[in-house]
């Protein structure tokens, strides 16, 4: 070891040398070259560095305290757990096949109106990233708002074993990750881990409008269960939804009170996300005035119904962060409203990770698209071709259905679409539709 212990640490850096700050503690990463890590330590010396045995520290500036350990990952977790115990914030967790990030952003926006909160960043929502949030906590932080994602079983369960949330919500259960897990029924099992991982006496919110959510079991759950919904009766009831150019207004009936709320995005699915956020905030002791203000001012994650101004008066809706059949149909419903007086064009790509449901899922979207009165349905990708074929079989005008396998040809076609069109983009992450959106926004070929 090296150092005198007088430096005050403010934050941890888990193997990201380009993001170093002078008062951080840096943890060595075995997945990065030591030369790159050393360069970062030399250019921006942190307060301390945790290194494994066998790594030389002679070239690290003498101002950096050195701690040598046999297992860096174990050291990360030990410090994270220690820091967590010092602060002990209230913990809320959200999972679901869609809407996790949006709901988390909504709750965070509400809490930040008057309180201090540490929350999930971007889509860094698996067990691997949990220590970084625990290490970010400092005295005075009241809430830890976590989005819990998973690509395998036990991911959510492991997160819950560490933080034992006192409030939880499952936004919905859909087809996302069905291919990886072996079917939608196994997605239900994975989401069940949140319910089973909440602490005794916790508060749980479930989607009354989601059929698959009814397969989640609360038999062993020792706490309070509430529902949120629009179509079906629920404890947090949304109704009277009205669209505008800037978002959606809706009524909420809960706890014997009725109020009007606004969110700066569109879609019944996002109203459901807002209802879940309202429930979580109420369970954390937040008043309705602050909830209303937080929802109205929420900054949503990029590529979730992100509106972009295109050339020749076109409006581009970038909803291409990821895709599954339920989310794609929800987006098409939004497009139908936004294009009620303008040409509406849907650009749909492959939906990945559906496994044995791949063909049926794309056909489901195709049948739905045929009913949306689209000016054009454009597909891109091998699996997405099935969307167009099914839409044609369902009676859609062949002159309005197009398929492209070349990105350049697709872009040229989009640049020829009518001025003033509303163009909606949705595909799985791997297809990187944002590149098409960016090119179209700048009018380039």
Automatic annotation (TrEMBL):
Places the protein is found: Cytoplasm
In short, the EC number is 6.3.2.10
Q: What is this protein called?
A: UDP-N-acetylmuramoyl-tripeptide--D-alanyl-D-alanine ligase
* Pathway listed: Cell wall biogenesis; peptidoglycan biosynthesis
- Major enzyme class: ligase
**Can you cite a GO biological process for this protein?**
regulation of cell shape
Q: Which Pfam families does the record match to this protein?
A: Mur_ligase_C, Mur_ligase_M
> What's an example of a GO molecular-function annotation for this chain?
UDP-N-acetylmuramoyl-tripeptide-D-alanyl-D-alanine ligase activity
